[in-house]
Amino acid sequence: MTRRVSPTQSGLDPTVAARLKRDDQGLVAAVIRDNHTGEVLMLGWMDDEALHRTLTTGLATYWSRSREAYWVKGETSGYRQRVREVRIDCDGDALLVSVDQVGHACHTGAYSCFDSGLLMPAGPE
Amino acid sequence: MTRRVSPTQSGLDPTVAARLKRDDQGLVAAVIRDNHTGEVLMLGWMDDEALHRTLTTGLATYWSRSREAYWVKGETSGYRQRVREVRIDCDGDALLVSVDQVGHACHTGAYSCFDSGLLMPAGPE
After folding, report:
1. Going edge to edge, which strands form the sheet with A118-120?
2. How far is CA A45 from the centre of its chain?
3. Which of A1, A25, A94, B51 could covalently link to B43 via disulfide, CB atoms 3.0 to 4.6 Å apart?
4. Contact B90/A at CB under 8 A
5. Cα separations (Å) of B22 from A79, A121, A125, B11, B95?
6. B79 and chain A: CB distance < 8 Å anywhere?
């Protein structure tokens, strides 16, 4: 099901929902890290329902802003993320999700979405 | 200076600016991690100018959505973040910033903003 589920329709635990500080699109940022290496793999976006599905299925599930659909990571590629831990930050606008990553996290084929994006320090002249 | 600087006014390297995928508020998410431990410390928000200042001063600088002002982390508390590496992700809506954190990162006094926010696994009944 890809249709957007509103916070009031979502099955997310109300005590968790009350801690979320959503942006204008109803989303919080989810930082995904490798449970074994601690490496930051990617950043995704979750609404109440995506977080609910992540917590209850144990598979990292996002709201895709570009496709406007729920997206179970690896659903088509097979590169799933089995969730081992979920944390929320002090002001409720970010999640930290530790996962067992199957294969690579990035759609480019890289292990992490940050692998090829070095901005600083600058490379040799 | 706290007044918002537009992307066109910012001194950010145009080749970097061209890679940013900003949200409706002109911001990208910045994941901050400890350069030594790899631990994720916090999530902040940067616009072009905050990223420009971060890259050129070497001190992590954010756009505070609540205070609507640029904010050099530790400016008042002393808990600064000296920037060692900045990466951008594959689709340009997130940064990964490795810092030498002076003291603690969280305004609550915790080392990380995620320290006390365990949502899963649930604790003992």
Report:
1. A118-120, B81-88, B94-101, B28-34, B40-46
2. 5
3. A94
4. yes
5. 27, 22, 29, 17, 11
6. no
> Beta partners for A72?
A61
Contact B119 A88 (CB under 8 A): yes
The β-bridge relationship of strands B69-72 and B28-34 is unpaired
Residues B47, B117, B122: CA angle, nearest 5 degrees: 140
Report how far residue A83's alpha carbon sits from residue A65's, in angstroms, rounded to the nearest whole number.
Answer: 21
State how far residue B74 is from chain A, nearest Cα, in angstroms: 17
What is the interface size between A and B, counted as CB pairs within 8 Å?
Answer: 104
Q: Do B89 and A114 touch (CB under 8 A)?
A: yes
Cβ distance of B89 and A43 shorter than 8 Å = yes
Handedness of CA B93, B98, B100, B101 (dihedral sign): positive
Q: How far is A114 from chain B (nearest CA, A)?
A: 4
For A66, phi then psi, to 5°, come to: -80, -40
Nearest to A85 among B16, B39, B120 (CB): B120
Question: Does A116 contact B at CB distance below 8 Å?
Answer: yes
pLDDT over 70 at B121, yes or no: yes
Query: Is the CB of residue B62 less than 8 Å from the CB of residue B73?
Result: yes
CA–CA distance, B102 with A83 (Å, rounded to integer): 31
pTM exceeding the 0.90 threshold for the entire prediction: yes
Provide the pLDDT confidence category of residue B124 given band limits of 50, 70 and 90: low
